Amino acid sequence: MDDVDRLWTIILLLFVGISSANAQQHPWHQVSPGNEAPKVVTAVIEISKGSRAKYEIDKTSGLLKLDRVLNASVVYPTNYGFIPQTYCGDKDPLDILVLCSQDLEPYSLIDAKVIGVLRMLDSGEQDDKIIAVAKNDASLNYLNDLSELPPHSMKEITHFFQTYKSIDNKSIKIENISGQTDAQNVILESLELYKTQFGNKDLTNGN
Predict the structure, then answer these.
(1) Which helix (H) or strand (E) holds 185?
(2) Residue 19 and residue 120: Cα distance in Å, rounded?
(3) For a surface tag, which of 4, 53, 113, 205 has the fewest beta carbons within 10 Å of its beta carbon?
(4) Residue 44 in contact with residue 31, Cβ under 8 Å?
């Protein structure tokens, strides 16, 4: 093989590598929300319980990006992420809090059993949070509704969202906390809104 052939071989290998990288699934657009949605959904974890780092999915690349480190001296009370192929009024996928006996790794997928919803306004924009338990965690998967959650667990969650932006002078208003039925309706609405927003778009490389 002469130098020219070697050069073309290298170019071909680079092209194949780049094509393979681009073919990776985008976690928002190309991961299923789950066959049992809205009762059990697939959650993409962005932030581990106990973290102060606010990660978000970069909408173009699908990679995790550090949005900020929380300025307040608080940590996320649960694992935090989003439900794929959902869309909300804040132009982001629907957020989900996943209670689990373990701190889950960012970018992991988990089957999450939906038990409730925290309906809130963030600086005037609707910013609902689905509350779920890890389906495959026997220490929590017996829970079916938010009403069965230990009261202090819900106090921790509401206190976090009421205070984590207060140091930045941003307003958070919790409108309502409700159970499984309302949560499932919120998920169904966000799935339909996603279809309306993205149904006819090529999302291979994000949006």
Answers:
(1) helix 180-198
(2) 41
(3) 4
(4) yes
Interatomic CA distance for residues 82 and 84, integer angstroms: 6
Burial of 206 (0-12, 13-18, 19+ CB in 10 A): middle
Closest C-alpha to 96, from 88, 195, 13, 151: 88
Residue 25 has pLDDT above 90, yes or no: no
Structure tokens at 32: 């299923």
Per-residue pLDDT of 38-74, as tens digits, reads 999 999 999 999 999 999 999 999 999 999 999 999 9
According to DSSP, the β-strands at 129-134 and 95-99 are: parallel
Return the sign of the alpha-carbon dihedral for residues 100, 102, 105, 109: negative
Cβ atoms 134, 100 nearer than 8 A:
yes
Amino acid at residue number 63: L
**Which amino acid does the sequence have at 121?**
L
Token pair recorded at residue 86:
């959902």
Distances (CA, A) of 66 to 46, 56, 144: 10, 6, 33
Burial pattern 109-141, b for ≥16 Cβ within 10 A else e, equals: bbbbbbbbbbbbeeeeeebbbbbbbbbebeebb
The CA R_g of the chain, rounded to the nearest whole Å, is: 20
Closest CA to 91 of 66, 124, 125: 125
Residues forming a β-bridge with 9: none
Q: List, for residues 181-207, the tens digit of each pLDDT value.
A: 999 999 999 999 999 999 877 666 566
